[in-house]
Amino acid sequence: MPEANAKLSVDELLALDREHVWHPYGPMPGQRAPLVVESASGVRLRLAEPAHGQRELVDGMASWWSALHGYNHPVLNAAARDQLERMSHVMFGGLTHEPAIRLAKRLVDITPEPLAHVFLSDSGSVSVEVAIKMCLQYWRSSGRPGKRRLLTWRRGYHGDTWHPMSVCDPDGGMHRLWSGALPRQVFADAPPPGFDAEPDRRYAAALRELIGRHAAELAAVIVEPVVQNAGGMRFHSPGYLRVLREACDEHDVLLVFDEIATGFGRTGALFAADHAGVAPDVMCVGKALTGGYLSMAATLCTRRVAEGISRGEVPVLAHGPTFMGNPLAAAIANASLGLLLAGDWAGEVARVAAGLREGLAAAAGLPGVRDVRVLGAIGVVELDHPADMAEATRAAVRAGVWLRPFGELVYTMPPYVTGDEDLARICEAVCAVARVA
Ligand SMILES: Cc1ncc(COP(=O)(O)O)c(C=O)c1O
């Protein structure tokens, strides 16, 4: 075992990694060696040693869609340093501080109108847990405890903790293992694809009927608006969000939008809900909230939901993560939102969209490619077979790009600051992966 501070070679690091470190969605011990990243700056990841001839990779993933402004950003670094010198953390029970207050105010200002209150937590999945707890508690406090199930559409993804798993796609993906153990929720068919497609009347009617039929037991409908992300990178018409809003109002069911992946401009609107002009009762944001620097998420709700909870026999929201409202993360989130809103985020996302459309067009004619689609700063090439991860990684790295396909999907969600040449390079890498994987 090396001394605590001894310099470790890349081989030593990888041997220890294999021995001790459990990676996301991986076996233990790991079977494929990960790439060791030494540093990151702008849109580039610098590897500790070259892989397939490349030492630097253009990041097509923005660290799972969070690093909007790229890495090592001087404004975000300064915000972190400044806050570190004051305090990196204090508990949030009984104490408060300016970074969290400013952040909550700003989130209320930029999210759809009736959202008024903000519960800060430490990850997207936890923010979804909090959203669900809010909805169930709202009905319990209103004397209707039987309203405790959730309705969602298939092909969704809301996180890996227990209740969010229960509203992920029940058949596809990783959570099938737990069917029978998870709470049983109500599933509608996946929304018909196509952002620009006219809403399908039969589908909309079926959605309304399902909500009506289960209304007595439903606390809430929860969906990813406009883009279903980790459940298949599928885009749908914003019209379905209006259908959900109307049906929820008609049948006394709360509506939750999970904007963890879509928030802060990713789809071309500041929030995906804005495409539909619809406001949810509860909304989750995360991922890009801190510009990818630290883990933080937020659950917003309306006055009606908060007042409903406060009327109950237990008039508090019984949730309090240790690192709730972390000042360091909140200060960086404020700086990141400041950067985003002061700049031309809409123009930048439109530029990225145009670059992705142009660069990915070549994939459409490749054998094994089922569909190519772009919305905002999201580019997707869907294959007609699952991608071979080892081949895919090799092809992308050879092209000087970091990509991480899943299932049949080779996709990119790059930082908005990715320049045109780097965008073209990402697209070439996506096409290279589609050719071999
Ligand atoms: C829509 C959506 N909800 C929830 C989550 C879970 O967030 P986290 O990974 O921060 O727990 C994700 C993560 O990919 C997501 O895309």
Strand content: 15-25%
Q: What is the element string, with H for helices and E for strands?
A: HEEEHHHEHEHEHEEEHEHEEHHHEEHEEH
Global geometry: globular
Supply Rg.
22 Å
Helicity level:
25-40%
Distance between the termini: 38 Å
Strand order of the largest sheet: 4-12-11-10-7-5-6
> Which ligands occur here?
pyridoxal-5'-phosphate
The structural class is alpha/beta
The overall strand count is: 16
| Distinct helical segment count | 14
Low-confidence stretches: none
Subunit structure: Homodimer.
GO molecular function, one term: adenosylmethionine-8-amino-7-oxononanoate transaminase activity
Protein name: Adenosylmethionine-8-amino-7-oxononanoate aminotransferase
Modified residues (N6-(pyridoxal phosphate)lysine): 287
